[in-house]
Amino acid sequence: LWFSCPILSSDIPSLREQLAAMQNDAIFFDPKSTSSFVNAVGLLESNRSSILANQLAGFEKMKERSWADAAREWCQVFHQALLPTTSS
Questions:
Q1: Are 63 and 34 in contact (CB under 8 A)?
Q2: Rounded to whole angstroms, how far apart are CA atoms 51 and 53?
Q3: pLDDT (mean) for 15-34
Q4: Which of 6, 25, 59, 63 has the fewest CB atoms nearer than 10 Å to its CB?
Q5: Rounded to an integer, what is the distance from CA 2 to the centroid of its chain?
C-alpha cells in the first residue's frame, strides 16, 4: 500500500494477524486454490477504487502500530503463559 497498490493476501494466520487493522477490507484467498485466487483478483478488478480507498484507510491505522507495540504485546502473552495456574 505504500505505492497505492491494493493488497491480495494468502489466507494464512500470520498475514491475517498482520492485516487485522484492515478488518474486512483485506482480500484473502486460499493459497492452495487457483480458483480462490482468481475470484480474489476478479473482486479486486471489479471494485478496485473502493477497495483501495478502504485499504488505504486501514493502512493508516497499521502505520500507527510500531515494533515496540508488537514486542510489548508479545511480552504480555509470554508473561501470562508463565503465570502459575491455580487448581480448583
A1: no
A2: 5
A3: 85
A4: 63
A5: 15
- Determine how many CB atoms are found less than 10 A away from the CB of residue 7: 18
Q: Please list the alpha-helical segments (H only) found in the chain.
A: 13-18, 34-46, 48-63, 67-82
Asked if pLDDT for residue 1 goes beyond 70, the answer is no
Nearest to 28 by CA among 11, 52, 6, 47: 11
> CA 53, CA 76: separation in Å to the nearest integer?
34
- Is the alpha carbon torsion for 75, 24, 46, 52 positive or negative? negative
Q: How far is CA 22 from the centre of its chain?
A: 6
Residue 82, CB half-sphere, CA atoms under 13 Å: how many? 6
Q: Is the pLDDT of residue 54 over 60?
A: yes
Q: What is the pTM of this model?
A: 0.61
Are the beta carbons of 4 and 55 closer than 8 angstroms?
no
